[in-house]
Amino acid sequence: MNMGVTILKPYLASSGVQATGKVCIGTVQGDLHDIGKNIVKMMLEGKGLEVIDLGTDVPAETFVQTAKEQGCQVICCSALLTTTMDVMADVVKAAEAAGIRDQVKIMVGGAPVNQEFCDAIGADCYTTDAASAADAAVELCK
Ligand code: B12
Fold first, then answer.
1. Are 123 and 136 in contact (CB under 8 A)?
2. DSSP tag of 59
3. In this structure, are residues 76 and 107 in contact, taking their beta carbons and an 8 Å threshold?
4. Burial status of residue 89 (CB atoms within 10 A of its CB: 0-12, 13-18, 19 or more)
5. What mean pLDDT is predicted for residues 55-66?
6. How far apart are CA 22 and CA 74, in angstroms?
7. Which amino acid residue places its CA nearest to atom 63 of ligand 1?
8. Regarding the domain delimited by 20-141, which CATH topology (the fold level of the hierarchy) does it fall under?
9. What residue owns the CA closest to ligand 1's atom 13?
10. Ligand 1 atom 83 nearest Cα
11. Residue-wise pLDDT tens digits, 91-126
């Protein structure tokens, strides 16, 4: 999958275009699934957004610290395990504790996540797939 993504990336990423926003993305702490996260990353880049990829097993504080230091408008959290999706709630809390909750939008996704969960933890946006995630991120960056 990752090899395929590497081949497709030059065709999807817009070249010579000024970035329309800055986003950081990662799979939450305790979770090593990254295929979906990597597809979302590729689609975000294809929409002209600058993407900081934090990789997998990312602690809540790292998402928030990165957003604060790098000036990201959106934090994208991915989770594939029901046991790790609660880390997304920690990201929301960490953003509040760091005083940047009003400056950053938090997007959540991954197979076990749904709109109800997004609302319950106070995140800003949930979408089901990479294409809609990229469209939503562009809107949030505006
Ligand atoms: C591939 C896979 C693995 C690979 C991961 C390889 C990798 N580099 O990612 C390996 C073999 C390593 C693995 C390990 C494990 N896995 Co696994 N794995 C899967 C599997 C088969 C596919 C997941 C996948 O990649 N789907 C394809 C991608 C494209 O879909 P996606 O991630 O959902 O992403 C899309 C959307 O959700 C969305 N999206 C994703 N992220 C984001 C983020 C944002 C912000 C937004 C908006 C949208 C979005 O866009 C994406 C593209 O459209 C699933 C079963 C399944 N059929 O889903 C099990 C599954 C997720 N794994 C499971 C389990 C239990 C494990 C292990 C715990 C097994 C074990 N006992 O060791 C370990 C966990 C290790 C860890 N700590 O993370 C369970 C989870 C059950 C649960 N309820 O939590 C599943 C559901 C299998 C099962 N039926 O039991 N796994």
1. no
2. -
3. yes
4. middle
5. 98
6. 7
7. 81
8. Rossmann fold (3.40.50)
9. 33
10. 82
11. 999 999 999 999 999 999 999 999 999 999 999 999
